[in-house]
Amino acid sequence: MASVLWRCCCRSVGSHRPEISCARNRFLVSPVLEERRQIQYLQSWVPGTRACRSRGTEAFCFSTSSSLFFPKDYSLFWRTSPGFHYIAERMYCCGKAHNNEKNVDPFKLGQKDLKNIYEDIKKELFVSTDELKDMCEYYFDGKGKAFRPILVLLMARACNMHFNNCREMFASQRSIAIIAEMIHTASLVHDDVIDGSDSRRGKSTINRIWGERKAVLAGDFILSAASVALARIGDTAIVSILSQVIEDLVRGEFLQLGSKENENERFAHYLEKTFKKTASLIANSCKAVSILGCPDPKVHEIAYQYGKNIGIAFQLIDDVLDFTSCADQMGKPTAADLRLGLATGPVLFACQQFPELNVMIMRRFCLPGDVELAWQYVQQSDGVQQATYLAQRYCHKAVAEISKLHPSPERDALIQLPETVLTRTK
Amino acid sequence: MGKVSVADKMRIQTRFQSKGYSGRVSSEELEARHCEENLSEGFIYDSRNNLQMRGLVVLLISKAAGPSKTDDLSLQHDMVSGIYSSQRSLAEITELIHTAFLVHRGIVNIGELESCDGPMKDMQFGNKMAILGGDFLLANACTGLAHLQNTKVVELVSSAIGDLVQGIYYENSNLPEESSLTDDIGIASWKEQVFLSHGALLAKSCQAAMELAQHDTNMQAMAFEYGKHMSMSHKLNSDLQPFVKENAGNTSAFSLNSAPVVLHQEFLGREAWIQQIRETQLKGRLLDFAKLQEAIKTGQGVSAAIDLCRYHGNKALEALQCFSSSEARSALENIVRAVTRFP
């Protein structure tokens, strides 16, 4: 079953991006060879991450949930990967339910709960000044993907169904979805000022229209409103979990400022940044709704792991799209990361084949022509495919996690969600 | 709060952070100073230390309130010299938030810069660091708040952050580059804005300190009142400085939205005030501040502002009456006396 799903994923990725499909076919024809290549590469840095963990650097000590990126069974996961499908299949407690899962469109299923969510967010943002109000509401126009709220709402229902077949959703869980979107938006507003971006989601950024000073204040205000909404839920554990997210977001931004000389460290650094900037919010919001819906700590861990893995995959694909998508689709200029001096997944993989990239990464593509040259190298290498492949791996892990829950339409939608993450074009 | 040290390092790189923030906020340090019991002008106006006033007030009011009568014994053991450890954390958080906004206030609009402001790249880098630095402090405040394990306190302090943003927003929109010289705001809206930008954080932190010790709503309301009125009189006092200093020789620019100016305008009427400004206008839009200052000094604005400052001071002292007499309470009273004393 899993392998069918997997091939189905691959095919649809291919249809969107022909240049990848040939690589994907290669993978399908001779998976063992491809796997070995991957394993060799990944082994080159997985031990590095272990060393980090034993040194106890903060990078791998995460709050209450288990260690980051590569769970302890990770290398095992890889080494046994030719037999992965078998393992994965065994993990699905209820394989038959999956017959229906193709019919479940996560975005459609999430839509009914998503209704009015932006109106509710606007209610949280109570301001007396019109201009500040306009700024705060600017991105809550309902034109975003609403990926986070949908995921969180589906997770809430899946956990409630798992626990006692409860078809209701609690108001507190809905608040978490609202808060997650608000925290995300606040960080977007600040990121755009930091990066000096001019456009997002196909419109001008707040800093472009109102200037940097006001944009930063708007971000702060959205954050404070999210924080008030969070406190109103009245659960100290939930407050702790989501305030961790805010800290992770800032620390992730700091990580992005630095780059590592050593290649292995560089990848670990990149994944840690990815976790903190993107996955932490998703993982911890999922955990929060699971706590509110179900008392079983095992479920909390499943929710967290699902969120973490899909979050990292989401960002990896985002980084891939920066190389493969055209500006019209993304609503923001492409190769933006390179221009900002950031070496994302595809570049790091490309660097394996073209060591010339090393110096450019270290000087953060600051010399004239660096961006274009690096872009060329990435296009010539299989960096994009490798990064996509890694994202698929994270998605696999996410699916394996969520399959441990009892079947429900929402759980099946969450099983489907990774596919939409992998195949998205914007 | 060892975590702040990263931000401290950044401070060196950042050109736009406020001067005077002495870095780490340590409650022990604050308390040590409090023990010296020398809380008059020297402390408040020492340019190096004045920015830790908020943390100090939270500690003092916690100490003045003491343990709650309904207090259970489990809380009792972590009380050191009359202050619960959660209240100490709250004092630090209050300072963190205040400092975060000092940093965020320093962000500049890149589009409005001119070549004489220095290299664009440096300004962008400064902005970047200021945003990240402020966010870092705010994030620490958030996790610190979560640790307090009291959602009412989280809500109060978070709403204070929202107030602060709105207050600073008003402040910004009153900047000369945004409006035509001076806004037609009355003293009522001045009070509203200053409460948001200067009073809300301290008022709500004082209230939260009472909540942490499980004091009743009356006590919480009084602590809020003290924080609010003390901040108002403090702000009035600093607004008044250019007009009451002995050595009027070195006139510096003052805000046309400061209390004495707003009051002066109210007495004079909008028309006459605009006229007065035109008379002191030099080339372009530059103002002769020395001349304007003299004009304002002859009006009733300054004395009205002093009255207002004393009015808020008295309100603050009244609020303190519900606390039993103690060293900490007299320290809080001394702070009020210090900000309401004029030569």
TrEMBL record, chain A:
Record's GO cellular component terms: heterotetrameric polyprenyl diphosphate synthase complex
Protein name per UniProt: All trans-polyprenyl-diphosphate synthase PDSS1
GO BP, sorted A to Z: isoprenoid biosynthetic process; ubiquinone biosynthetic process
Stored Gene3D superfamilies: Farnesyl Diphosphate Synthase
Co-factor(s): Mg(2+)
InterPro entries, per database record: Isoprenoid_synthase_dom_sf, Polyprenyl_synt, Polyprenyl_synt_CS
EC number of this enzyme: 2.5.1.91
The protein's annotated pathway: Cofactor biosynthesis; ubiquinone biosynthesis
Keywords: Isoprene biosynthesis, Lipid metabolism, Magnesium, Metal-binding, Mitochondrion, Transferase
GO MF, one example: all-trans-decaprenyl-diphosphate synthase activity
Function: Heterotetrameric enzyme that catalyzes the condensation of farnesyl diphosphate (FPP), which acts as a primer, and isopentenyl diphosphate (IPP) to produce prenyl diphosphates of varying chain lengths and participates in the determination of the side chain of ubiquinone. Supplies nona and decaprenyl diphosphate, the precursors for the side chain of the isoprenoid quinones ubiquinone-9 (Q9)and ubiquinone-10 (Q10) respectively. The enzyme adds isopentenyl diphosphate molecules sequentially to farnesyl diphosphate with trans stereochemistry.
Main location: mitochondrion
Source organism: Microcaecilia unicolor
Cleaved signal peptide residues: none
Compartmental location: Mitochondrion
Recorded superkingdom: Eukaryota
Assembly and binders: Heterotetramer composed of 2 PDSS1/DPS1 and 2 PDSS2/DLP1 subunits.
UniProtKB/TrEMBL annotation, chain B:
Superkingdom, taxonomy of origin: Eukaryota
GO function terms (MF aspect): prenyltransferase activity
Keywords: Transferase
GO cellular component annotations of the record: mitochondrion; transferase complex
Keyword Transferase listed: yes
UniProt-listed GO biological process terms: isoprenoid biosynthetic process; ubiquinone biosynthetic process
Pfam families the UniProt entry points to: polyprenyl_synt (PF00348)
Similarity comment text for this entry: Belongs to the FPP/GGPP synthase family.
Protein name: Decaprenyl-diphosphate synthase subunit 2
Annotated source species: Microcaecilia unicolor
Lineage start: Eukaryota, Metazoa, Chordata, Craniata, Vertebrata
